Amino acid sequence: MVLRKIKYSKIAVVVFLTILIWVWADLALDDKLPVSDATITVAKSSPSLWISFNDEPSVSIDNIVLRGPASKINNVRRRMKDLSPSFEFFLDAEQEKMTEPGEHQLDVHSFLRKSHQIKQFGLTVESCEPTKLTVNVVELAKRSLTVQCFDLTGNSLKTESIDPSKVDMFVPGDWAGEKLIAEVRLMPGEIERARTTYIDKIPFVELAPGQIKEAATGVKIKMSTEEDPLKSYPITTATLGYCLSANLQGKYKVAVDNLNEVIGNIAIRATPKAKQAYEDMRYQVILEIDDGDVPPKEPQRRVVYNFPQESVRKGEIMLDQQPVTARFKLIPQPSTEGQ
Fold first, then answer.
1. What percent of the chain has pLDDT over 70?
2. Are 15 and 7 in contact (CB under 8 A)?
């Protein structure tokens, strides 16, 4: 019998070519994955800068199309079923060279293509909407702000002491006078606890609706030990009113998805007289509707508790719960023209 000499170099070449064919076949089977729930959020930056997307800390990206080998697309698709990954991207203004005050244009496609989150999945960004975003940069100035306490509805609270009474914070340079206030919001339980001992809280300012900036240091608060004249009451017969412009009246009907949550069992603290005055109001709860809330939008907005102004001024009534956010939509009504 003749034994043939095994040529390992030829076997290695065959194995290498086989692997190469498998890899090529996988790459050739490119697939696409649409992502519709991505967000870009401003990362923490210098305390002397306020960086936002038109006063918002984050912005939604309506449609991203990812492209890559079918096997990797399927892997991401499986993970998305378990709510991971969430596809939240963070904008580092310094890295993007957006630290000068004013407006900057962010090329979203280019920004996403550089994302480590996308690269770690071995995918690329084929397209996205929107393709451009405006980034606003405001230079802040250091100011000494007076600390004031409020309840959850914004009513001013009388304190025995606040230490320190002022905090240094970076705020827009044009803020002056009554704007130079750092707020502390106390829940009902915290108000009661602060009557017997000091409590620690972090003051904050609201740069824009929903845009909170906290102080670097906290304060100690002590409330007055005087007996609280306010008692806890549930309001079980609330009526909801809508505040909308003439542009929408007669054209849309308001449908609130969580109506029971909005008007059911409103917890308040009040004097008996203020409670009765609140119940006598035409509307106990008001939902403010903007012209931009039209379909296909389904907005969410905190309701306004329509407390009697005189009772609020005298500190005789306050909300004893977290304000409720209404989920609603506007339903177009048939046109009455020509009838």
1. 88
2. no
